Every structure is written in C-alpha cells, then in structure tokens.
C-alpha cells in the first residue's frame, strides 16, 4: 500500500481528501471522517473495514490512471477481490434493489462508476466459470423449458425496442422486476439438458445486459457497470463468446463516454479478441470494431483507429442478408456512421465527422428517436466548433423537435452540451441562437 501511495506522489493528508471525495460519490457517509491518521494506520497494518478497501482502491486507481486491485495494496490475497466470483442466480434476484426503493436522484447519488470494477477477469476464469455452472444444483425441482428461453428472448426484443424509441428510463423498472422474479425463477429451476441450460443463461445474460444499457443511457453508471459485469458472467456460464464481446463493447462505450480511455481500450480490445469476434456475425463484428475504433481514438492511436474504422465498414458491407442475433437489429449504416463520426471528431477531423453525422441523420429510420436526437446534438456541436453557427442552430432545432417523450440521460446531456455551446456564440447567432438557448433551458427543466 505504501509503495502505491508513493507512486501516486501525494501526501497522506491529500490522499485522505481524495478518499473522502470518492466515498461521497458512492454514498459512503460513514467514511467522511477518514483523515490522515487513518491512512497512516492502514499503512501500518490496521484493519480496513466495510467499503473502505474498495473506495481506497478506486481512489488510487483514479489518481494513477490504471487499475489498482485490493491484492496490490495488501487488502486481499492475490487473485482475489476482483468481483468475479458471483452467484449469478442470487445476484439476479437482488438486481436493481436500489432502483426499486429509491427515487432517481437518490440512485444517481449512490450509483458511481468504478475504474476498478471495469477490469477484465483473470486468465482461466471463463473455463472455470463454465465448469462451475455446469455442476450447479437446481434450487427448484420444476423444469425450465425451451418455452421459457423463448419468453425471455421475446421480452428482450420488446424492451430493446422501447429503449431505442423512448430512451433507457422507459420501462426499465418493469424490466428489472421481470428479471428479479420470472427470469430468476427460470434460472433456479431444474435444467433438463445442457442445450437448454446454455440457451437460458444466454437469453438471461442478454436481458441483463439490456438492463445495463438502459441504466447507462439513464446516467445511472454504477448500476450499468454492475449489470454489464453480471451479464458477462452469465454469458460465460452459457459459453456464449459473441454475446460476451457485445457486452464488453457496451462497457467500452461507457468508459469512453466517462473519460476513462485506457480502461475503454482494454475492454474494447477484449471485445474483439479470439472467439468473441471470430464467432460473431459480420454485423456484430462491425459494431464491436467501430467501438474499438472509438477507444483507439480516445487514446490518440490515430492510425490504428482509422484502420479499425475501415475494417468495420468492410464487416458491415459483408453482412448482406446474413442472419444475425436480434440484439444487433439496430446496427445499420446510420449507426456505423454515427460511431465513425464520433471517432473522427475525437481525432480532430471535424469536417469528416460532420459528413458522417449527416450520413447518419440521412439514413436512420424513424423508430430510433433517441439515438437520432443524440446524433443531431453531436452534429450541431461539430458545426458550431467550425464556426457554422446558423447551421448548428438549425440542426439543434431539429433535435429539440424530436425529443418529446424521450426519457434518456444521454439526450439530456446532449441538450446540456447544446446550451453550453450556445453561450459564447449568442452574438453571432442572433435571435435564432437566443431563442434556441431559451428553448433548450425549458426542455432541461422538464427532464430529470
């Protein structure tokens, strides 16, 4: 522990202040009294109890820009403390417990993203997890059937379309309730064959992933991260490598958006590794690849990012009429163009980013209202950064016209960004900019 703190290069008093800040983010009010003497005692070998070990590891990870595990600071045996030893059936029954008992503002206060929690599992974990799942004893003697699998898949399609149309907050409470009751019950039943077991855990994994994606879109990043981790664990129990890649891609997307480029690249590289990419359909490969490109761009690995973009284009072109999992129904030319534009924007190529955002707007179908609004918001931002104030105002007006009824934290963030970008250009934008800014502020007052 002392060596890691020395590497960070801060005093014990400064570390205690950072620790309290992270504790406050995660609602750990019991740790707000932690001061320099606590750090000194911990270094000397005193017991670190409750949530303090994880918060200390997170504090050090943020400061160093890399994952610091509990084992590395002497608070867990080597290889332990990673959070990957999970009873998925029990975890599913507890899923989203905070969301069922708290209001949204309380959830946002206690739902914090963790760089440590985003770490990939250790080597050999996948095979060990699959073996343990195959030997699990049923809790209920009632059998699970192929009909239960199909029911879970149908629920996934329904909630996924709600998410695309209305945003992550729409239907999320109902989805969590369904997972905690019906799906948890199916997983606890007697599984008549290995085929049914794998199919059921794969279907449940995808639905848990979707609940994580909806949490991500809602801005509940801690819950999103927990759900992605649980979904990945269940994908391993199903030995479903392409689904695991899909989940890691979402986690990488979250890490990019939250400003953790190194973690994003680790997750994105994991999503395209080995069987996760090799066994995926071409459409899903394109999705994994373009998010990998975004992570490369976030790390300013420009040549590799552009190469990944070209490969994603080829993969989507090769998809043709190939059968693909229902989970990638949304990924089309418009989606690829959107992610390509984000990559080019992050590489500093604003002109090309504007072209790709426009392609996304032009080719997107109507049901995808949430993403369409986000794309328009990003397009307006790129336009105003190039001095095209009138064009940006027109783009943002179109974005605001289409967000009625959408319940999405990402859409809200887009409107916030819009309002901030308008502030310094009021004079050049004239009346149109002033009216748009006023309208954006009114929209924000109506969104939680």
Summary, kept brief:
By secondary structure, the chain is mostly helical. Helix content is 69%, strand content 0%.
Could you describe the 3D structure shown?
With 448 residues, the chain is mainly alpha-helical. It has helices at residues 2-8, 12-25, 36-44, 52-64, 88-93, 97-101, 104-110, 125-134, 146-166, 172-188, 194-218, 221-237, 241-257, 261-271, 275-278, 282-298, 302-319, 333-346, 350-363, 369-385, 389-401, 409-422, 426-445. Residues 77-82 and 99-110 have low confidence and may be disordered. It has a domain at 2-73. 69% of the residues lie in helices and 0% in strands. The chain is globular and about 65 Å long.
What integer is the average pLDDT? 88
DSSP, total strands: 0
- Percentage of β-strand residues: under 5%
Task: Give the CA-CA distance, first to last residue.
Answer: 41 Å
Overall 3D form = globular
Q: Are there runs of 5+ residues with pLDDT below 50, and where?
A: 77-82, 99-110
| Major β-sheet profile | none
Quaternary state of this entry equals single chain
Number of helices: 23
Based on CA atoms alone, the radius of gyration comes out at 23 Å
Class of secondary structure makeup: mainly alpha
Helical content class: 55-70%
- N-to-C SSE string, H for helix and E for strand: HHHHHHHHHHHHHHHHHHHHHHH
Mind sketching the topology for me?
Blueprint: H1 2-8, H2 12-25, H3 36-44, H4 52-64, H5 88-93, H6 97-101, H7 104-110, H8 125-134, H9 146-166, H10 172-188, H11 194-218, H12 221-237, H13 241-257, H14 261-271, H15 275-278, H16 282-298, H17 302-319, H18 333-346, H19 350-363, H20 369-385, H21 389-401, H22 409-422, H23 426-445
Helix pairs in contact: 2-3, 2-4, 9-10, 9-11, 10-11, 11-12, 11-13, 12-13, 13-14, 13-16, 14-16, 16-17, 16-18, 17-18, 18-19, 19-20, 20-21, 20-22, 21-23, 22-23
